[in-house]
Amino acid sequence: MSRKIAEVRPIHARIGNRNQLLLKITLEDGTYGWGESGLTGRDLAVQGMLEHFTPILIGQDPFAIGRIWQELYRSQYNEGGNVIGAALATIDIALHDIKGKCLDVPVYELLGGQQRHSVPGFASTAREPDEVMIDEAKLLVDQGWNCFRLSPAQHYTKDIYDARASIAETAKWMIRAREVLGTGPMIGLDYHHRLSVAEAAMFCQMMPPGTLDFLEEPIRNQTPEAYAALRAQTPVNFAIGEEFANKWQALPYVERDLAQFIRIDICVVGGLTEAMKIAGWCEAHYVDIMPHNPLGPICTAASVHFGAAISNFSYLECRDTPVEACGFDVPEVFVDQIRLDGAAYPVPDRPGLGVEVDESRLLPPTPVAKVGRPRLRRPDGAVANW
Q: Within this chain, do residues 273 and 328 fall inside the same structural domain, yes or no?
């Protein structure tokens, strides 16, 4: 049996309601594995990087996953960044899928073995804060969800974003939500790095202690010193990391204890190889892992195997729940996938990731000119973060 890589094929396709970039790596004997890029909206950049990597990959032993990661990352002068991180992730995940299939074991067995029988998830309400949002949160509690994330005011705006108005309105509804829901559930809020340090501090100071269990991405993460300044002004737990491209970006947040939950995205941070290293650092600092998971079933499967294999796991983001249906799972395309059972994902026992793709159902991607995120503006016309 030949165990060399014969083909590396990026697949840019319209899947459900958005474009996705998948990767299929095939060996000479026909064994294949699937990967997925997490750099949504920058798919063509990652596809270009995969084309750079392909000549290096052809003919390699797919079992040498760690060595391949090092060679791809270090064999050019300009290393690092989200495009390289996402390209590495697609390759790394696909190689783990292949190795699991070849050895007839689930991917988590390649990561140290199974530490839990199910991977708990957290849900998100899918609306601006109001009484209906609180009703959705109550429904989640009633259906066994112990952790969920609420949305701030103006979260879904596509044009003007007024930070001061948002934090005042959001604080009011967060206080109301905690009063109604009690102290039982773990409640978070995602500000999607739209605030400044001052705005984030003011928001936290508007609420009584214990209102929020975690605040996700209140500011951009390029400057750890900014998070240190914010930490000095509030005791609220921070959940940070979905944009980290590698362990070096995670390092200051872990070593300086700036984050209490690390939100790495397996499909952005360089794949399972890099994620396992970050999880080990976090374990030494008693920091829990709460993976970002807004993509498709390949990202979900990789995250479930990762969560099954580490001790310091908290919750996995879920985007198709009793109160939210993003349509990312697309069962007619992903004919085999890991599905929620209540508020958790059962740990699978199938070889590899446990995902199968019907390539005949993949559609051509929507032209780049017709896709993209909203370009937000402040009330005075200045650019705001999306």
A: yes
Alpha-carbon gap, residue 355 to 317, rounded angstroms: 18
Same domain, 144 and 220: yes
Residues 95 and 125 in one domain: no
Task: Look up residue 7 and give its two tokens.
Answer: 């083909």
My answer on whether 45 and 180 are in the same domain is no
E strand intervals along the chain: 5-15, 18-27, 32-36, 118-124, 147-150, 186-190, 214-216, 238-240, 261-262, 288-289, 316-317, 320-321, 324-325, 334-336, 344-346, 356-357
d(C-alpha 194, C-alpha 82), whole Å: 19
pLDDT (tens, 9 = 90+) of the chain, 386 residues, equals: 568 999 999 999 999 888 999 999 999 999 999 999 999 889 999 999 999 999 999 999 999 999 999 999 999 888 899 999 999 999 999 999 999 999 999 999 999 999 999 999 999 998 899 999 999 999 999 999 999 999 999 999 999 999 999 999 999 999 999 999 999 999 999 999 999 999 999 999 999 999 999 999 999 999 999 999 999 999 999 999 999 999 999 999 999 999 999 999 999 999 999 999 999 999 999 999 999 998 899 999 999 999 999 999 999 999 989 999 888 899 999 999 999 999 999 999 999 999 999 999 999 998 877 777 788 999 999 999 98
Contact (CB, 8 A) for 264 and 99: no
| Distance between CA atoms of residues 331 and 320, nearest Å | 12
Count of domains forming the chain:
2
Same domain, 95 and 118: no
368 to 9, 17, 195: CA distances (angstroms): 20, 14, 28
Q: Are 224 and 253 in contact (CB under 8 A)?
A: yes
Q: Please check whether residue 314 is in contact with residue 287, taking contact to mean a CB–CB distance below 8 angstroms.
A: no
